[in-house]
Automatic annotation (TrEMBL):
UniProt entry keywords in alphabetical sequence: Cell cycle, Cell division, Cell inner membrane, Cell membrane, Membrane, Transmembrane, Transmembrane helix
Protein's name according to its UniProt entry: Cell division protein FtsX
Family the UniProt entry places it in: Belongs to the ABC-4 integral membrane protein family. FtsX subfamily.
Principal subcellular localisation of the protein: membrane
Span of domain FtsX extracellular: 74-163
Alphabetized Gene3D superfamilies for the sequence: 3.30.70.3040
Membrane topology note: Multi-pass membrane protein
Length: 312
């Protein structure tokens, strides 16, 4: 008697586990049993899921292409031509001591001329110059507000011209924020569309098996027991759609990487198109599986509430 009582919970747990495994295997079998319908459903879902994910990946790459944040925030201070090298060095040390300055790089006129000779291919014209016309340059990296720092640097007696690119970076940041919000809106709308596609597919499967479901209800099967195979079916659809969406975006990445790297190289940039790391890919596929699970759960739950036998 005690042995039978002890094995009863284990048998119940084993039956619960076996039914989960059976539901998963049966769901995969149903998908493979109708390959064209499965391919159509998975294809529609994958395209809907790939659009917002691709937009998000494009925004991440655009932000990377814009350059390093600290480099983009640099303020260029061109000193007057009469400022000596010793004074330029001392001024750089004074600016490094300021609390609103993170770093200062001094470029001498000789360094500027050598860089111009290498980049522009104007070696012969530069060699013809008797004097170096370039001034000393200070590249100042601010800690926080570069606009306020640029105003303060413009007031220096040794400063001839101050350049900072806050305007275009603010506009770029605004476009990136808008693009991110657009990607979120598209993800919500197209995610809802994918959920409805799964729900409709599961609904058709439920209609095809309504007599079987009715028999199970008459035999006293719980809603969880009846719902479980359809939940796994929806999760399998979501999993397959997420994997296909990643495959499509990876193929697009491979197709665009080489020409984009060549284009960036023509501008002196070493930019390389970035894809998805394994953790991001795993999280996305898991999220699409959960989306399919939820879609199947909503449809199945609604059907079971409508067909639940009433007590007489």
């Amino acid at each position: 008697m005690n042995a039978a009582t002890a094995t009863r919970p284990q048998s119940r747990l084993g039956g619960w586990f076996d039914h989960h495994v059976y539901s998963l295997v049966a769901s995969v079998g149903r998908m493979l049993g109708k390959p064209w319908a499965t391919a159509l459903t998975v294809g529609v879902m994958s395209v809907a899921l790939a659009l917002p994910l691709g937009l998000w990946a494009a925004l991440v790459n655009v932000e990377s292409l814009a350059g390093q944040v600290q480099q983009a925030r640099q303020v260029s201070v061109f000193l007057k031509t009469g400022v000596s090298a010793e004074r330029a060095t001392a001024l750089a040390d004074e600016l490094r001591a300021r609390g609103d300055v993170a770093a200062v790089e001094l470029r001498t006129p000789e360094q500027g001329l050598a860089e111009l000779r290498e980049r522009a291919g104007l070696g012969e014209a530069i060699e013809a110059l008797e004097d170096n016309p370039l001034p000393s340059l200070l590249l100042v990296t601010p800690r926080q507000d570069e606009l306020r720092l640029a105003t303060a640097l413009q007031a220096l007696a040794e400063a001839d011209q101050v350049q900072h690119d806050a305007g275009w970076r603010e506009r770029l940041d605004g476009w990136l924020r808008f693009g991110l919000r657009l990607a979120m809106v598209l993800a919500a709308l197209l995610g809802l569309g994918a959920l409805l596609v799964v729900g409709n597919t599961v609904r058709l499967d439920i209609q095809a098996r309504r007599e079987e479901i009715g028999v199970l209800q008459l035999l006293g099967a719980t809603d969880g027991f009846i719902r479980r195979p359809f939940l796994y079916l929806g999760a399998c659809y979501g999993l397959a759609a997420g994997a296909l969406a990643l495959g499509l975006l990876s193929a697009a990445n491979l197709a665009l990487r080489a020409p984009l790297a060549e284009l960036a190289g023509s501008y002196g940039s070493h930019f390389v198109l970035q894809g998805f790391d394994p953790l991001q890919a795993l999280a996305f596929v898991f999220a699409t599986a959960v989306l399919g699970w939820l879609g199947a759960g909503l449809v199945t739950g609604h059907y079971l509430r409508q067909t639940r036998p009433t007590a007489t």
